[in-house]
Amino acid sequence: MLIKLTGGTVYDPASGIDGQQQDIYIQDGRIVNKPVEDIQVDREYDLKGKTVMAGAIDMHTHIGGGKVNIARTLMPEGHRADPVARTHSTRSGCGHATPSTFVTGYRYAEMGYTTGFEPAVLPTNARQAHMEMADIPILDKGGYIMLGSDDYLLRMMAAKKDQKAINDYVAWTIHAAKGIGVKVVNAGGISAFKFNQRRLDLDEQNSHYGVTPRAILKTLATAVKELGIAHPLHVHGCNLGVPGNMNTTLDTIQGIGGLPLHLTHIQFHSYGTEGDFKFSSGAAQIAETINKNKNITVDVGQIMFGQTVTASGDSMIQFINHKHASPNKWVTMDIECDAGCGIVPFKYKDQNFVNALQWAIGLETFLLVDDPWRISLTTDHPNGAPFTSYPHLIRLLMDRSFRNEVLSTIHPEAQKMTTLASINREYSLQEIAIMTRAGAARLIGLKDRGGLGSGNWGDVTVYTDNADRQLMFEKPAYVFKDGELVVKDGKIVHTKWGTTHVVKPDFDVSVEKDLRKYFDRFLTMKLDNFKISDDEITEDGRGSLTVHPTKGEAV
Amino acid sequence: MSGLTFTLKYRPDQRVDMSPLVYQKLAKLEPAEIASLTLQNGKRKSRVDELFGISGSDATNMVIKNSFGKLDFIGRELEGGSIKIEGDAGAYLGLGMKSGAIKVSGNADIFAGCEMKNGCLEIAGDAGDFLGAALPGNKMGMKGGTILVKGNAGERAGDHMRRGNILIEGNAGDYCGSRMTAGTIAVMGQTGQYLGFAMRRGTLLLWNPPALSASFNDCGAHTLSFLPILFASFKKLNSRFAAASAAFNRVQRYAGDMSEMGRGEVLVKITHPGF
């Protein structure tokens, strides 16, 4: 099967193509060079005047795992208000902040997204997370394995085990839980919460293990680097949402000693304490520091006004936040002594000073970080807003007058506290393509996604150019997944199943000796049941695994 | 002008969502327009005139004849007018109704008067579980108005109730008044286990001694002057609650649920004041 996409204007930062008219050929799922003349084109799409990009990648979106299901259970009103009927090609479901798995896949694809990564796969719950993501159609998926508050690691660190032993444990866990990266959430803080610590600063010791968040970050960032995992340690920092936390964030960046680090939902970690309300924007300083430190990458975690539900592993912070729950109901829980979970519904309001300033801080961050290759477009779905708000967010970034128009409607004190109005930058289509495609793929280490060069998989999104970028990005003309047309005019026409992206770094198998004893003594399942086999992902006939190389391996 | 009457032609196998047939949606429609409205019937959609014979035109006095227990969402968010149901009603009868009156000659299924805001709901037969309750996951049940049940009520009557009156002439099932925030539930018959489970405030008025949990404290016998006023407000009802002989003012008072806020009360009629 040979498909020809004719005459579109191509934005493919991965191969340095910025708005050139070009034909793209897809053969049997993969993008190929122009074939020799005599091969017959089976299907041709005339894309003259249309904008062509690779399928978009959401590198941080909570779409699977226990917390998403708890959020669904906690917020049935969102589902009742947004029922989705079945069609001849799609199944029924329900939507809004935590849509059903099927609707998650459909709505992402209908916006031109073809890949999403679940950022908090708790190893103990990884099986459930993968099974749930296996029910998300069309999208490719993957997960970052959550470590840093797990008893085993903290015991190892307390016992001063060497880095090699920790590397083996990390690599073993990535294998067992089928991850593509490592995430740390409020390093050690989730554990400290259970020993009655309600805050844990970067250099404060966990009262039980005597380990500090800084030491955990350094140890895990080193492990990730030494194991050759492409995606840097994915860090949800200390003190999320706390006024003045920008200093913690700056300290985290300075103190990591040049190790690669990805700071996620940075917006929630960029707060100062100035002004009458003792809450101010630290975006300028944070952005400046990011610009200077090339080892740092970030995603924003933009908030949008409206009802959503926050779902986080950070039970320490979510416990503090429960006072703001709207509607007033919330869950904070321990999970198998290895992590935590907090679900708090939120209604971000533009007439609330703090919410309005959070909105502005996120946008300041987008606009003040110079290098789009090192910043990803996220709302930390569903924590800042549901992913369906991305087209609106893209318009805010690309259209200065629209941005200022919205800015003029938010809480007046917040308007005074932000420099947003004075920032002239408007994102170009190429920069959007970097943030949502090529940059995200490079950041995660996806070898054949996020680009349109020959050899890439045929994940292609075609937009109809429109000065209103929200309308443009809301409703792509065509979306191809692995070379199959799945969306036409913003509606699903065909569904298929994506793959699961993983890495498999090397480790010393003797690591299981101690782990087996530990599992037998302390945990609720046996070590052999803990490990997810490849078959579990693939045996239903629709899932598949794509293993990406670690650095040092031949590609 | 005679009342707008829907006569069910046959009993469909699947449940029917009756929510389009309310006063505020029908008041300005011609009979032909009403006939061509569609109702969700299981996974199909059926025209109104496919399921019902239609006569009369006065939407303020609606009648549903031959009704049975698979007609759900009757009187959903009703605003004005009255609905008389001859037969049984399905689930979610009067869901979120804002004003007006609904009368059922038979039984009502689960979630009758769920999240009702105001108005009057009268059930001549029995009511199912979650009478006047909140939808699953929601924090506020009935917020106002009156529900009168002449038969028995199921479990969880008044779950998460916020305001208004639920009057039950027969028995109430387990967890009556569970998680109540406020409001009044009166039960003439027997009550089940876990009465007032996790109630915060509100009043449970009982004719018969309940099986109370340990988290309710006995506050002794009281003569409460508000009770005659409360009973006087029932006078206009077509109910045993309206009878002068039903009224009393001497009660044993229990406070609870002490595992919650503990400002709720269970008032039990003292039958032999001298005892």
From TrEMBL, chain A:
Its EC number is 3.5.1.-. It holds the Pfam family Amidohydro_3. The keyword Oxidoreductase does not apply. Residues 44-494 form the Amidohydrolase domain. Keywords: Hydrolase. The gene is fhcA. One of its GO terms (molecular function) is hydrolase activity, acting on carbon-nitrogen (but not peptide) bonds. This is Formyltransferase/hydrolase complex Fhc subunit A. It is an enzyme of class 3 (hydrolase). Signal peptide: none annotated. The keyword Hydrolase applies. SUPFAM superfamilies: Composite domain of metallo-dependent hydrolases (SSF51338), Metallo-dependent hydrolases (SSF51556).
TrEMBL record, chain B:
It comes from the Bacteria. This is Formylmethanofuran dehydrogenase subunit C. InterPro entries: Formylmethanofuran_DH_suC, Glu_synth_asu_C, Glu_synth_asu_C_sf. One of its GO terms (molecular function) is formylmethanofuran dehydrogenase activity. Residues 78-207 form the Glutamate synthase alpha subunit C-terminal domain. Transmembrane segments: none annotated. It holds the Pfam family GXGXG. One of its GO terms (biological process) is methanogenesis. PANTHER family: TUNGSTEN FORMYLMETHANOFURAN DEHYDROGENASE, SUBUNIT C (FWDC) (PTHR39673), TUNGSTEN-CONTAINING FORMYLMETHANOFURAN DEHYDROGENASE 2 SUBUNIT C (PTHR39673:SF5).
